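Submission checklist for the structure archive. All mandatory fields must be present; incomplete records are returned to the submitter.

[x] Identifier: DUF4349 domain-containing protein
[x] Organism: Polycladospora coralii
[x] Residue count: 293
[x] Sequence attached
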Amino acid sequence: MSHYKLRYTPMLIILLFFLTIGCEQSSNEMSLESTEQSVQQPSDTSPDQVDKMIKQEPLSVSQQPIKQSPTTQVVYTANIQLTVTNFERSKRELEKRFPAYQGYLVNSSENHSTEAISGHLTIRIPHQHFQSFLTDIQKMSGTQRPNIHVTGTDVTEEMVDLKSRLNGKEAMEKRLLNLMNQADKTSDLLSISKQLDMTQSEIEQIKGRIQYLTNQVDYATFHISIHQPKNALNTDTALNKQLHEALASGWVNFKSAIASSLIFMVKLLPWFITISLLGLITYLFIRYLRKSK
């Protein structure tokens, strides 16, 4: 019996060895076929799947928005009401002041009536000269204490949000351009092109808003109202009227005095002639008497 076991043991070992090799080869072939099928399987991507790929694709490290510590950005607006005694003089003085602060005039208007003269000016001044120009206005001559209302709007948070959105939209634009270069189907190209147009339009809107806010921060806005009230207007009018009336009255009195003098002289003329003749006769008579003696 032991002799029988020793005889068949080597044969069993050899049989098990070949069975093991055969199973491994079969497993490798099945794995290889599965891999080839997954690689060679054609891609069928719909436009909706393209949009999903665009939205789900994460930003790379270089494309992610960089968090910065922004400085405070404030939009300053000043509303000033000036009550003056001479509108034209105050307006000219104001128009001479703002160019010294590198400012510029946006618009100007005037309104003349029988009761008052009023006007409005909108002026932009660099933000670094805001306080200096505001102080200078209060020193203008011929004005009462002005009414001043200053407001400041902090747009720092909005600017940070806009720049973050801009970075995201620009990264989206780059991804869409890359997908457009890789797309083969017309449907994919149309879908990507539509997304690209919308993204580029949003980029332009964001850039326009950033540019507008930057200009508002860099230049403060002054809304200045100039008002010459009725009493000041009447005072100037009354003074001019009095001067005119005084001049006219003086001229009339002068002419009247000359006329009166002439009339008086004419009235005295007969008496003057009579007295002159009597004096001449008396002189001649006295002279005749002296010669007779």
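[x] Structure attached
Curator remark: The first strand starts at residue 74 and ends at 83. Helices lie at 2-40, 47-56, 87-97, 130-137, 156-182, 186-218, 230-292.
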